[in-house]
Amino acid sequence: MYRKILIATDGSEASKAAERGGMKLAKSLGSEVVVLNVINEMAISKAIAALVGRGFSEEDLRRTLKDSAEEIVTDAAKMGEDIGLRVEPLIREGDPALRILETAAIEGVGLIILGSHGEGGISSRLIGSVAWKVVNWSETPVMVVR
Amino acid sequence: MYDRILVATDGSAKSKVAVQHGVDLAKATGAKLLGVYIVNEVVVASAVRQLGADKKDIEAKLQASGEKAVADIKKMADDAGVAVETMVKSGAPANMIVDLARTEGVDLIVMGSHGESGVTKLLIGSVVQKVLYWATCPVLVVR
């Protein structure tokens, strides 16, 4: 079951738990894995608005965000490859929830796995806005990992 | 991978889709299944208060639909060769599911996105919403 699993991560603690749980599940089901990090367009515009012209160039900021996204998906992919999985790392830009749903549809995944909170999460009780939107809008089963 | 998977049902057709995912996952990962139906005490209380229903009567009816719903889970699990245990409990559904997951050492909860009272296509039901808020283990939501 679940020939292909999408693990969405932003490198946060709950995302790391989703990566670990997702990779183990993929291993036991024999699934392929797509690891996705979405560079949040809101974070890009905020960073640009706050920092450009104060010694930072837009290109540098974009490169920094891209580098950090690369690191997140590369680390996750390595975790999967180390246990013998086929992992495709992907980076997208935009609204995280929408890009996750869109990627799930394009890649034809049978399951989406993500953390309950992203980098912006504060409470240990409630779930983050990205997980909330994905669970509400997804036609594909969604696993939320704390 | 998983030792114990809790599948929560309210007996609806949507719940059955989620149960099937739970059964398949248990089969594929070698987990035991815990099938749960919660007699919603809020529904019982409001039926008594607003409709003047007999408390014992309404409880018995809900208990019976619960027994039937978990018997369906047992059959699906048996057909798949998956070890299964079932429970019908009374309480507030989300609280009970979260508590049971903790006390029974469950490592995954599987639920349908909507129960019987779900009407909208896009938004998820209130029980699954609360379970997502409070659960300490992963939750798989199936539409």
N→C terminal distance of chain A: 23 Å
Number of extended strands of chain B = 5
CATH superfamily of chain A: HUPs
Largest interchain contact: A-B, 26 and 24 residues
Radius of gyration of chain A: 15 Å
CATH topology of chain A: Rossmann fold
Question: What is the SS-derived class of chain A?
Answer: alpha/beta
Overall body shape of chain A: globular
SSE run of chain A: EHEHHEHEHE
Major β-sheet profile of chain A? 5 strands, parallel
Mean pLDDT across all residues of chain A, rounded? 93
**Main sheet: strands, sense, barrel of chain B:** 5 strands, parallel
Strand content of chain A: 15-25%
Query: How many domains comprise the coordinates of chain A?
Result: 1
Q: Which oligomerization state do the chains in this entry correspond to?
A: heterodimer
Instruction: Summarize the amount of helix of chain A as a percent range.
Output: 40-55%
Q: Helix content range of the residues of chain B, please? A: 40-55%
What is the CATH superfamily label of chain B? HUPs
C-alpha termini separation of chain B = 23 Å
Query: Which architecture name of chain B does CATH use?
Result: 3-Layer(aba) Sandwich
Protein name (chain B): Universal stress protein
Pfam family, one (chain B): Usp
InterPro entries (chain B): Rossmann-like_a/b/a_fold, Universal_stress_UspA, UspA
Family (chain B): Belongs to the universal stress protein A family.
